[in-house]
Structures are given as structure tokens and as C-alpha cells.
Design brief:
Radius of gyration: 22 Å
Strand order of the largest sheet: 1-9-8-5-4-2-3
Distance between the termini: 28 Å
Order of helices and strands: HHEHEHEHEHEEEEEHHHHEEHHHEH
Number of strands: 12
Structural class: alpha/beta
Strand content: 5-15%
């Protein structure tokens, strides 16, 4: 195993985060409380203002389950999403006993294809309207065609069955667009604060909505289906043991220890974006001259969470896997985003027709893509080393 010279990611943690966490530890209140409330308020302001209701959760996965459940996803219904995503986007629907229909991504893009979504909706309309939600995924921070997706949800909704749009915005903060911030454009949006994301709480996420009824349901389901929050039970004059359970909820709340990190990180989100964008510009400038590299797609509101470097196999004597291993051999941390879901045993057994041949764009993107290091505090010498190493490997293995 080569010595890691350039890590794939390193969280931008400062003394401010350290002090904030110590403040929580010394306060005597570690679980969900005033720091989480502050984090939620700050996040709402960062993605649109007072009309956005933000609910902190312990993961994007938890938030996705809450959003789907609130929108009526359950047994006998289905969601539409992309096979080109982390598996939890689809698994959340299965936790609710719903089916999942997959739409391929666009050609030369990582975003779900609206035309493929409509093909599914046409079939669904003939088969009884099972689709309850469309779940677009903003891969690497590049925003899907939300205008078209919203139009499709409206077009195929009926008086008996509204189709919701739930954005998987795990990669998309901050992402301002003409329609609003990614994650607040649809009926609900779910962000991730996992350690490698654009801001981090180590583990955690946020669900956002402008719909008070959805927010009310998710708030209750986030904490055991209880009609009072923990903070309210222990700070209100009303006895802490007085509460009701009105639904079989979950345990998805974010504790103050982690929210303290989020309060600091959200204040620097724009700075982090500017730092990532400066590195992206260097990558693009260097790689645009190479015929064996295809630059990542870019568009309005792109948060540049990841740099998806796509190789051109026609110009190389090595495969993506071999290129990736050579990068690792030179001490560069890399990843692949994402292994399409149809490669996984559970999904192949569940849906026998769910195979690579039916999703050619997703399979092509997967077979050619490597995620290379991109994080705010990345030193210039590491940026240069990554660029030079990519050029070296490609040149040595050029057709």
C-alpha cells in the first residue's frame, strides 16, 4: 500500500469547531437542544430564508425516510430515482415497503434523465398510479433539470394521487439556482453532513421543506412519533413525562454535540465553495488540454462537491480501474461515485430486469469515472501533484 501523499478528503476543522463542541460538553446538555435549533435556523437562512423549515437529522438516509414517509410513500406505492446514486436513496423506499423504478441518467451527464422519468410515468398511469414520489439526485453538486421534473410531477399527478418531488441534495450545498436553492425546489429536500460533504457534522443531515404539513409530520416522526420534542419536555413548565405517541416514529434526531459543528461549518459554507471552485478551475485548465480526459459537467448552482474525472477509453491503453490503481500507487486518495445500484446483489435479486444493459448511460459513466481529491484546505502542492500525476499516467498509457 503506497503512502498517502494526497488524501481524498480532509474536513476543514478549526478552533471554532473545537470550542463549540467543548461548550456543549460543558453545558451538561448533549442531545438535541438549543444548538440544534440554532443550526436549523442558520441552515434555513442559508438556503432561502424564513419560508424554509429545516429539520436536523442524524443522516441523509434518516432524512430521506422521513421525507418519503411524510409524502405518503408506503406499501403499494413506488418512487422513481436514478441507479447512479449511493444505494440509500433507493433503500429508503424499501424500508417503507415501496417499490423503486429506475430512470437512466442523461447521456454524458450524471443527472437523472427527465425523458426516462416520463416513460416510467406513462407506464405507471396505465397500471394504476403507483408512483408517489420522484427523487432526483444532484450528483457531485451539479443540479438536475428540476424545472422539467417539477412539470412532470404536476402533469402526471391526479386528484387522487399527488406525485411529490423529493430532492436528494446530499451533494448540493450551497447551490443557488433561478428556481431557488437546491434542496428547497421540490416538496422536500435532504442534505448530508457526512464527513466528506461540503459541510460536516461528522454524521448528520437536514431535511428542508416549505410545506408546514410535511414539516409537522417529519418533526413528529423524527422522535418516536412523540407529540413533544425532548428540548420542550425538559425546558417547558409542563411536566417532562407528559407526552403522547401518535404514530410509530423513528429515532432520527441530531444531538447538540454534532449540531455545534454544523453551526460553525454553515457560516463558512460559501468560503468552502470558493476554495473548492478555485481548485476545480485549476483541474479544468490542466485537463482541458488532454484528449484522454473528459471534464465534468457543469451548470447553474453547481456546488462542486466532487470532481468527477472521466477518462476517454479510446485514448488510453488502460481501463478506469487500472488508472485508479495507478493513482493510488502514486499516493493519491481516490474514490468512485457511484457504483450503479444494479450491480448490487440485493437489487439484482429483487428486480431481475434491473441490469446494466437497460441503463447504458449509467454504466458508461461508471466505467469511466474517477473522483479525485477536492476539499477546501487542499494545499497548492497537493493540487499540483494530482494534476501532474494524472498527466503522467495518461501520457505513459496513451494510445
Amino acid at each position: 500500500m503506497a503512502e498517502i501523499k494526497v488524501p481524498f478528503h480532509k474536513a476543514a476543522i478549526t478552533k471554532a469547531e473545537e470550542d463549540a463542541v467543548l461548550d456543549v460538553l460543558r453545558s451538561g446538555w448533549l442531545t438535541t437542544g438549543k444548538y440544534t435549533l440554532e443550526f436549523e435556523k442558520k441552515f434555513s437562512q442559508a438556503v432561502g430564508g424564513d419560508d424554509v423549515i429545516s429539520l436536523a437529522v442524524n443522516s441523509n438516509t434518516s432524512g430521506m425516510i422521513l421525507a418519503m414517509e411524510a409524502c405518503g410513500v408506503k406499501s403499494g406505492t413506488a418512487v422513481i430515482t436514478t441507479p447512479y446514486t449511493f444505494v440509500s436513496t433507493a433503500t429508503c423506499a424499501r424500508h417503507l415497503n415501496a417499490d423503486v423504478y429506475f430512470a437512466d441518467v442523461e447521456k454524458d451527464s450524471y443527472s437523472i434523465d427527465p425523458e426516462k422519468i416520463e416513460e416510467i410515468l406513462i407506464k405507471d398511469a396505465k397500471n394504476g398510479h403507483k408512483v408517489k414520489a420522484i427523487v432526483p439526485v444532484h450528483i457531485a453538486g451539479n443540479i438536475c433539470n428540476m424545472e422539467r421534473i417539477l412539470d412532470l410531477a404536476k402533469k402526471y399527478s391526479t386528484s387522487e394521487n399527488k406525485i411529490f418531488v423529493i430532492e436528494d441534495a446530499a451533494h448540493s450545498f450551497p447551490s443557488p439556482t433561478k428556481l431557488g436553492y437546491a434542496g428547497t425546489i421540490g416538496d422536500a429536500g435532504v442534505f448530508s453532513f457526512y464527513v466528506t460533504k461540503t459541510i460536516t457534522t461528522a454524521e448528520g443531515g437536514m431535511v428542508c421543506t416549505k410545506n408546514p404539513e410535511l414539516a409537522k409530520r417529519m418533526t413528529m416522526m423524527r422522535m418516536h412519533g412523540m407529540d413533544r420534542t425532548t428540548w420542550d419536555r425538559y425546558t417547558s413548565p409542563r411536566a417532562s413525562w407528559e407526552y403522547d405517541i401518535v404514530a410509530p416514529g423513528y429515532k432520527f434526531n441530531l444531538p447538540d454535540v454534532l449540531s455545534a459543528l454544523g453551526c460553525c461549518q454553515v457560516d463558512r459554507a460559501v468560503l468552502f465553495y470558493e476554495q473548492r471552485k478555485a481548485i476545480v478551475e485549476q483541474y479544468n485548465k490542466a485537463f482541458s488540454k488532454l484528449d484522454f480526459i473528459k471534464l465534468p459537467p457543469d451548470g447553474e448552482g453547481n456546488a462542486w462537491h466532487l470532481y468527477l474525472m472521466r477518462i476517454n477509453p479510446e485514448k488510453l491503453t488502460i481501463t478506469r480501474d487500472e488508472f485508479a490503481k495507478k493513482l493510488q500507487g502514486e499516493g493519491i486518495g481516490i474514490s468512485v461515485h457511484f457504483i450503479p445500484i444494479f450491480h448490487f446483489t440485493y437489487w439484482k435479486e429483487l428486480y431481475p430486469d434491473f441490469t446494466a444493459k437497460n441503463y447504458p448511460n449509467a454504466e458508461t459513466q461508471y466505467s469511466q469515472t474517477i473522483s479525485i481529491p477536492l476539499y477546501p484546505d487542499m494545499p497548492q502542492e497537493q493540487v499540483d501533484y494530482v494534476i501532474n500525476t494524472v498527466i503522467k499516467i495518461g501520457t505513459e498509457n496513451h494510445v
